[in-house]
Amino acid sequence: MDFIVKLAEGFIKLFQTGADTFISWMTSIVPLVLMLLIAMNTLIQLIGEERINKIAQKSAGNPFLRYLVLPLLGSFMLANPMVHSLGRFMPEKYKPSYFASAAQFAHTSNGLFPHINPAELFIFLGIANGIKQLDLPMTDLAVRYMIVGIILNFIGGWVTDFTTSFVEKQQGVKLSKEVHLEGK
Questions:
Q1: Contact between residue 112 and residue 143 where contact means Cβ atoms under 8 Å apart
Q2: How far apart are CA 141 and CA 52, in angstroms?
Q3: b or e along 61-97 (b: 16 or more beta carbons within 10 Å of the residue's beta carbon)?
Q4: 93, 164 contact by CB (below 8 A)
Q5: Beta strands per DSSP E along the chain
Q6: Is 3 exposed, middle or buried (0-12, 13-18, 19+ CB in 10 A)?
Q7: How would you class 8 by CB atoms within 10 Å of its CB: exposed for 0-12, middle for 13-18, buried for 19 or more?
Q8: CB 68 within 8 A of CB 154
Q9: What pLDDT score was predicted for residue 179?
Q10: Are 62 and 154 in contact (CB under 8 A)?
Q11: Are 73 and 110 in contact (CB under 8 A)?
């Protein structure tokens, strides 16, 4: 009988933990993402969508800007998951590769910029704990993690470009290199 009671208590505790996590998100990450979204849309309105489209198109033409600079700036200023919203300004052809690069950067920059992706900071901190136990400097780990990440982000974005081109040919589809925003 004790086993059934403990099983029932554990079952309910699982949902209580889920509810507590949900409430913590409602008081932390949800308002943050909402404020970032408002700030980004305000900035877009002040600068003008046409200007941002031109910047995105020029950036899309250069793989270094597309896979290194934009994801780095977007991640640093907007954090994860808002960095992905910048992809709306990329031409359709480059949206998959921008997303791939931005998603990877959100993980590999945690050591130096924990605000970018705090939900996954535990991965870096787990590795850093092992480094600390070996009495090695954690800053070196953070810098190396980011450098390797930047290189892999670039490669990942470029590989995604090739994959997208392959799928285009396979499916008989041609993605536009022009920026097309919803409602325009």
A1: yes
A2: 36
A3: eebebbbbebbbebbeebbbebbbbbbbbbbebbbbb
A4: yes
A5: none
A6: exposed
A7: exposed
A8: yes
A9: 62
A10: no
A11: no
For 75, residues 6+ apart whose C-beta sits below 8 A from its C-beta are 83, 102, 105, 106, 109, 113, 116, 117
> 1-50 pLDDT, tens per residue?
788 888 888 889 988 988 888 888 788 767 877 787 787 778 878 888 77
What's the token pair of residue 135? Answer: 């009495």
Assigned token pair, 78:
């907007």
Containing 146, the helix (H) or strand (E) segment is helix 138-171
| Regions of the chain short of the pLDDT cut 50 | 183
Q: Return the structure tokens found at 3.
A: 């086993």
Which two tokens mark 129?
């704990």
Cβ atoms of 81 and 91 closer than 8 Å:
no
Q: Quote the tokens at residue 26.
A: 């409602």
pTM of the model: 0.62
Q: How many CB atoms lie within 10 A of CB 117?
A: 22
Q: b or e along 126-163 (b: 16 or more beta carbons within 10 Å of the residue's beta carbon)?
A: ebbeeeeeeeeeeeebbeebbeebbebbbebbbebbee
Name the residue type at position 165.
S
- Name the token pair of 155: 């490669």
